[in-house]
Amino acid sequence: MSKPCSRRSPLLTLLQEHTPGCDVEVGYRDRMLGLLDSSGDPFSRDHFEPGHFTASGFILSPDGGSVLLILHRKLSRWLQPGGHVDPGDVDLFAAACREIHEEVGIGDVSEALAGVFDVDIHPIPARKVEPAHEHFDVRFLVRAQSTEITRNDETHDAAWVGFDQLSQRMSDPDEQRVIRKLRALAAG
Prior knowledge:
Layout: H1 3-17, H2 23-36, E1 51-60, E2 66-72, E3 78-79, E4 82-84, H3 92-104, E5 109-111, E6 118-124, E7 133-144, E8 155-162, H4 166-169, H5 173-187
Parallel strand pairs: 1-7
Antiparallel strand pairs: 1-2, 1-4, 2-3, 2-8, 5-7, 6-7
């Protein structure tokens, strides 16, 4: 069995077990389930119709009081680390952990919440060799063992941001949904 097929079943289970926080997220999850059931390799960055899965991680500081955000060089936006699924990634959690390590140098993380933390689908504009498509982002919540970071060339800046400061860096409606989830976890 190829890796793309072996990734489908674990992701299907994760998505079925995920409890969306609102109707928008229910729609995203349902579309992801549809993509999983489609033909082709929905984990390949060359799967453009309608798009492909990506993985990212919201990283809590060791004390749980802040979240690590990166200022993405190409997008000029504060985001959580994440990106495309590579052929060697056994599952989307592994892809998120690899991306975290590549983008901010943090290799020692643990699950802060079992399963999927959030799902999001966002448009990607056409580029030189890629048509417009969507990223079906599966998001995990992890805890770092250290606050030491090392940025790569995709990351213009990185900062540990307190929960009360997140809205100043992340302002679109889907980001606000995530901020509400993070604040609820911090309060609970």
